[in-house]
């Protein structure tokens, strides 16, 4: 039976832990100062002053510097070699995440790890199954890279999911006055069913062999970011535009407004679009559009000559329209004839299914002439608008 080597605890670990604790406390204090600045702007309903912007930028840089220091310290701790190693001791319990990261890294590098069921990657239909902790990190990174995916309702399960959809567009339950001995007229909405299945998608990421051969390079984080970036770009387009007979995007939402022009949008049309969503869902609504469409809207003025769009530095994208944040994405169609150029609503009405059990393949020979290896991740996904009352669209006039 193989025994692990005992590593004597180092006194430096305690010092390092105290140092990290101090850095994290500094970080928390800086974040509190940043929140105080943004809260003041929100409360007073105004923009940042030049001094406040400068202070906010300084605080933000300090937070990023601390994050970089913490990350470097943790990496240094992981690479430190103990001089007292060599005494045999019982096999300690290794944290699941660290164990799975080690197995995943070994699989990519082509290293044969010790034969332990808890460490080795299981074989799937399309390759080895990515450990759950790694898959979760990929999905979390996708959320950070794709705002629309982060706002959707997500399911990470296998198999088909069926959801009842209640439609009151043509008929709904109504209350009316009644007369004795006169029968009531029965009215009711219509229930339909929408299913989320699973469409296979593959993500290919190339990794330089120079990086693979560098034992000190954080190969796991690099691969996670590369795979997540490719998934995010694919998802962003599919969740917006969709593909016939596969995933459904938000541009297929109910067309609440058709613009009078093929190339321009009016303030009245934007108001009509916003008011098409019931008030109960307005709290989480957002505007989605291409940057060229935003350029058109920035030129809109009211009757007093004031610009309709507001610059809001407290939001991620920096713009609000009629009180709601604007999200810019290159995947949205431009304001062209017959195109859906603006979508408004609460994106939780779009349901997305991504199976967490991803399969991975490492292609060691295919890109040999490029001095690289290929890492392919296979996953199942689907999307449908399950709550259509939450999402509406504006379509440009067909023709010039």
UniProtKB/TrEMBL annotation:
It holds the Pfam family Phage_capsid. Keywords: Virion. Coiled coil: none annotated. Residues 127-395 form the Phage capsid-like C-terminal domain. Gene3D superfamilies: Major capsid protein gp5. It is found in: Virion. Signal peptide: none annotated. The keyword Thylakoid does not apply. GO terms for cellular component: virion component. The keyword Protein biosynthesis does not apply. Transmembrane segments: none annotated. Its main location: virion. This is Major capsid protein.
